[in-house]
Specification:
334 residues, alpha/beta, TIM Barrel, 11 helices
């Protein structure tokens, strides 16, 4: 069945196909039934109880418009966003490209979204009973030195409605955003966000884990530095990782020259290496959510074996369909 759906979707521009899919999943979410079971492979991470360790990565449902539909596909958790304080159009179109031969996708979306308030309204309407993460970012017009302001605005607004909050400082499509992954800039950001988390936790009598999403393009020295910051600031989790700027795995293929972040199957080895390096540095002190290139049960197991506690998929599901969730959910957890 999905092969026919994919054939229709792939006849469209990648972004138009995505929007059509979100609309279809929003309708699917309203149905009183689902042909897909929720795989049972329970685990507890960051103090949260997951029905299974397979999650939807951020970027798929930026505005939380199809939470219930995605939930009915079998995910153990869903992460919506990235969302910014105010709505923004993102980068000029076209900005999404399929690398068909490698089952990859290149995007330079630039955090296109309807703003944090619109996301919250959609979250409030959703009936999904799994774990929901909300991924937050900065507006493109906000100077990099004022990034903290945007993250604090979003954290304060989403805290009540999220099971965990992800801080995205690793998208390659917002100017200078990745500079926040280094040194004093990272320490200052994490220190202030943890302080705000403590205030919100006390005010609302509920603790929401804070997760950092990092890039797979970091050097070993940079990974060690990030790990040190995660531990020192008691960050609750880390997503490894985002899209890559590298084109080594798709060199010469159609659309490989397009600017933006590469995701999908070509990212698997690079993201697994990031997980392994992080796992060595963190030594179990901060749980890792493995994301990037998971396209099979075997590739998911490699990430678990490298040190991940949870997994996220997105691009490979576009190529393979919902059956991927059912397959990868069979991973053997440590």
């Amino acid at each position: 069945m999905y092969s026919l759906i994919r054939q229709c979707l792939f006849s469209l521009d990648a972004e138009n196909a995505h929007q059509l899919s979100i609309q279809a999943l929003a309708l699917f979410g309203k149905l009183p039934f689902s042909p897909f079971a929720i795989p049972s492979n329970p685990t507890t991470v960051m103090g949260l109880h997951f029905k299974n360790p397979i999650g939807l990565a951020a970027g798929a449902d930026k505005n939380g418009e199809a939470i219930d539909g995605f939930g009915k596909l079998g995910f153990g958790f869903i992460e919506v966003g990235t969302v910014t304080p105010v709505a923004q159009d993102g980068n000029p179109k076209p900005r999404q490209f399929r690398v068909l031969e490698a089952e990859g996708i290149i995007n330079r979306n630039g955090f296109n979204n309807k703003g944090v308030d619109a996301l919250i309204e959609n979250v409030k309407k959703a009936k999904y009973d799994g774990i929901l993460g909300i991924n937050i970012g900065k507006n493109a017009i906000t100077p990099i030195e004022r990034s903290l302001d945007d993250y604090l605005i979003c954290l304060r607004k989403v805290y009540e409605y999220a099971d965990y909050v992800t801080v995205n400082i690793s998208s390659p499509n917002t100017k200078n955003l990745r500079s926040l992954q280094y040194g004093e800039a990272l320490d200052d950001l994490l220190a202030n966000l943890k302080q705000e988390q403590a205030l919100l936790s006390q005010k609302m009598s509920k603790y929401r884990p804070l997760v950092l999403k990092i890039a797979p393009d970091l050097t070993d020295e940079e990974i060690a530095s990030v790990a040190d910051s995660l531990v020192r600031h008691q960050i609750d989790g880390v997503i490894a990782g985002n899209t890559t700027l590298s084109r080594e795995s798709v060199a010469g293929l159609t659309h490989a020259e397009q600017q933006g972040g590469l995701s999908g199957k070509p990212l698997h080895q690079l993201s697994t290496r990031l997980i392994a390096r992080l796992s060595t540095e963190l030594n179990g002190r901060v749980p890792i959510i493995g994301s990037g290139g998971i396209h099979s049960l075997e590739s998911g197991q490699e990430k678990i074996d490298a040190g991940a506690s949870l997994l996220q998929v997105y691009s490979a599901m576009i190529y393979q369909g919902p059956s991927l969730i059912q397959d990868v959910a069979k991973v053997r957890l440590k």
